Amino acid sequence: MDLGLKGKKAIVTGGTRGIGRAIADLLVEEGCDIGICARNPGQIADAVAAFRQRGVEAFGSAVDVADGAALQAFIGQTAGLLGGLDIFISNVSALGISNDEEAWRKGIEIDILGTVRGCEAALPLLEKSGAGAIVVVGTVGAVEVVGPRRAYAAVKAAILPYVKGIAVNLAARNVRANVVSPGTIYFKGGVWNQIEQARPDFYRQALARNPTGRMGTPEEVASAVVFLASPRASFITGTNLICDGAITQRVQF
Question: C or N terminus of the chain, fewer CB within 10 Å?
Answer without folding.
Answer: C
